[in-house]
Amino acid sequence: MAKSYNDFIRQKRLSKGLTIEQLAELSHVSRYTISRLELGESGSISLSKLEKIVHALDMEIGDIFKHSVIDDKTDNFIKFMNTMKERDRQSYIDLFMEIIGFVDSK
């Protein structure tokens, strides 16, 4: 199991026999962004770019978290968020994203 989603994406790319350049072409995301993502230096990659990369690897966004090691605190947080009503969950997600400075540039 991958230590992080960054490692999992790299492992998946390699298992498909793709170079970073090929994945960039398939996903329409720059080589630079993919390289930084795989190195864990992606900073605040947009969710839309991450989704393009994941889809180019024939996966869904949730797959990257199913195959990554998540600590107990994070796991409990995700479980708690999944018990919330969709509207409330989205409000908390929006607030959290604003706090950490994450901006989804569509």
Oligomer kind: single chain
Radius of gyration, in angstroms, nearest whole number: 15 Å
Q: Strand content of the residues, in percent?
A: under 5%
Largest sheet: none
Number of helices: 7
What class, by secondary structure content?
mainly alpha
- Taken from the alpha-carbon principal axes, the silhouette is globular
Helical residues, percent: 55-70%
Kindly report how far apart the N and C termini lie: 31 Å
| Elements, N to C (H/E) | HHHHHHH
Q: Can you give the mean pLDDT?
A: 83
- Secondary structure tally: strands: 0
Low-confidence region ranges = none
Account of the protein in words:
With 106 residues, this protein is mostly helical. 63% of the residues lie in helices and 0% in strands. The protein has 7 helices and no strands. The longest helix has 15 residues, at 86-100. 18% of the residues are buried. The model has no long low-confidence stretch (mean pLDDT 83).
Which terms summarize this structure?
single chain; 106 residues; mainly alpha; 7 helices; 63% helix; globular
Topology:
Elements: H1 5-15, H2 20-27, H3 31-38, H4 47-56, H5 63-66, H6 72-82, H7 86-100
Can you describe this structure in just a few lines?
The chain has helices spanning 5-15, 20-27, 31-38, 47-56, 63-66, 72-82, 86-100.
